[in-house]
DNA sequence: TAAGATTTGTTCGTATGTATA
DNA sequence: ATATACATACGAACAAATCTT
């Protein structure tokens, strides 16, 4: 179980964790990332919180979700480089 | 984006807006009203504020909410006629 | 064809914390 | 102190798409 900092929002820390796993290659290009229920189980946070992080990653172009199938790391060419946060 | 009067509570103005839309027939009998997230987007106020207005409409018998599905205008026979405010 | 499981997506419901007036 | 309003986080249920059996 992962521990989260209390003075920062959980969904943002989840976002950064997943982002680092993608950029670090733990989740491979064009490969799947764990399903929402799996992430709920692993990270110990609510579905909605996972989804908020996921939505941000989608907005970043880092992942692509296919309804009923799964969520996949986008090819690097598709990633946006967001500087300002 | 709708503008709200500053010297009256927002939730009450949201309540009156939705009530007028229901009574005016914009939201039809037994038909759905927009979801909470949609109303948040349209009216530019927080979820909790929308919910407070929604709860009042439920207490009035004007609408009925179904968890995970949506919120619907009740048949007119079910409406309460609240005189006192 | 049909039924079930999995996964994404959406919705309502509840609670807590913070800031403000 | 109380009420308002916003943001966050959790829980529960429903729906559609996909895949398997």
Quick summary of this structure?
Helices cover 41% and strands 12% of the residues of chain A. Chain A has helices at residues 10-23, 36-43, 47-59, and strands at 32-33, 63-66, 70-73.
Protein architecture, described:
- With 85 residues, chain A is of the alpha+beta class.
- Helix content of chain A is 41%, strand content 12%.
- The first copy, chain A, is built from 3 helices and 3 strands.
- The first copy, chain A, has a 3-stranded antiparallel beta sheet.
- In chain A, a hairpin with a 3-residue loop joins strand 2 and strand 3 (70-73).
- In chain A, helix 1 (10-23) packs across helix 3 (47-59).
- The first copy, chain A, is globular.
- Chain A starts with 9 loop residues before the first helix and ends in a 12-residue tail after the last strand.
- The model of chain A has no long low-confidence stretch (mean pLDDT 91).
- The chains hardly touch.
- The structure holds a DNA duplex (21 and 21 nucleotides).
Averaged pLDDT of chain A: 91
What spatial order of strands do you see in the largest sheet of chain A? 1-3-2
**Percent of residues in beta strands of chain A:** 5-15%
Q: What is the general shape of chain A?
A: globular
Order of helices and strands of chain A: HEHHEE
Largest sheet of chain A: 3 strands, antiparallel
Radius of gyration of chain A: 12 Å
Topology, number of strands of chain A: 3
Helix content of chain A: 40-55%
Q: Assembly state here?
A: homodimer
Q: What class would the helix/strand composition of chain A place it in?
A: alpha+beta
Termini separation of chain A comes to 27 Å
Task: Note poorly predicted spans of chain A.
Answer: none
* Discrete helix count of chain A: 3
């Amino acid at each position: 179980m992962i521990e989260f900092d209390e003075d920062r929002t959980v969904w943002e820390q989840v976002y950064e964790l997943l982002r680092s796993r993608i950029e670090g290659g733990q989740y491979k290009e064009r490969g799947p990332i764990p399903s929402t229920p799996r992430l709920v189980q692993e990270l110990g946070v609510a579905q909605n919180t996972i989804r908020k992080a996921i939505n941000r990653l989608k907005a970043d172009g880092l992942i692509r979700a296919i309804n009923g199938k799964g969520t996949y790391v986008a090819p690097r060419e598709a990633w946006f480089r967001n500087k300002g946060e």
